[in-house]
Amino acid sequence: MLTWVDGHPQDAVPVADRGLQYGDGLFETVLIDRGQALAWDLHLARLRRGCRALRLPEPPIAALEADRDGLCALGPAQAVLKIILTAGGAGRGYARPQPPTWRRILSLAPAPEWPLAEYRDGIRVRWCRQLWFPDPALAGIKHLNRLTQVRARAEWDDPQIAEGLIRDADGSVVGGTMSNLFVVRDGALLTPGLRHCGVAGTMRARVMAAAAAQGLPVRETALSVMDCLQADELFVCNAVRGIRPIRQLGARSFAAGPVTRALQREIGPPWPAPGHGAGW
Ligand SMILES: Cc1ncc(COP(=O)(O)O)c(C=O)c1O
Q1: What is the CATH topology of the domain spanning 2-110?
Q2: pTM of the predicted structure, to 2 decimals
Q3: Distance between CA atoms of 139 and 53, rounded to whole angstroms?
Q4: Residue minimizing CA distance to atom 8 of ligand 1
Q5: Which of 17, 79, 99, 228 is most exposed, with minimal Cβ within 10 Å?
Q6: Could you give the angle at which helices 202-213 and 40-53 cross, rounded to 10 degrees?
Q7: What distance in angstroms lies between residue 278's CA and the mean position of ligand 1's atoms?
Q8: What is the pLDDT of residues 232-241, one digit of tens each?
Q9: Between β-strands 233-238 and 180-185, what pairing exists: parallel, antiparallel or unpaired?
Q10: Which of 11, 12, 24 is nearest to 101 (CA)?
């Protein structure tokens, strides 16, 4: 893995960094496909929203893009770029130094495998016991405090289970530990609204736009466990793994259906999709 800190090859940051001390910062995980950052504008838009939510200045876009280009020129053409933007040096306790300084930590790792079977047949998903508690001010953004997902992901070590779904204290489903959830019911596409908690994914935005372009009704709404179990189709998505149908949720089995297939086809490569992949 290649890592740069503030534009220089380095893989350590000062102990006083506010990202380490307080989780004071944001991150993005960007897929690099044939050397190009996919959905870059959506990642920047979420970073900007995150800065506003954390009362930080505008993100240093030009420096981030220079880092991105420099790192991508050195790494594999298919890669995952992780961008961590912290509020820099310590200040006094929780009070930030004024004006805050940024620290940019970028790392580039090879892209994961995308096994055909996960895209064609689907993945196994479980329910997590860990709940996602509301914090509307931080809902949707990708800040550095991710203990809800860390705790949820620690609930299983069965490699056959690819994802876990997290609910809020009212029993509404928020999403996966690392992905957003979509339910297909009666020809409409439904996804949790994420006004109280959760991460509003860049792939979620792409999927909603693709569905709307196909004339599919799309609604953000509260989804219960029963809504999921009674779904015609279910899938999860994120920027690195694209759209993967759920073939098993707890004890219930599902078949990947036509809406999921059409959206996989529309979002297209680099992930396996009907008509795009060998043997599919
Ligand atoms: C909790 C959670 N929800 C959703 C997502 C999907 O976001 P994106 O589509 O930008 O990868 C992620 C990504 O890591 C996540 O951690």
Answers
A1: D-amino Acid Aminotransferase; Chain A, domain 1 (3.30.470)
A2: 0.97
A3: 9
A4: 201
A5: 99
A6: 120
A7: 27
A8: 999 999 999 9
A9: antiparallel
A10: 24
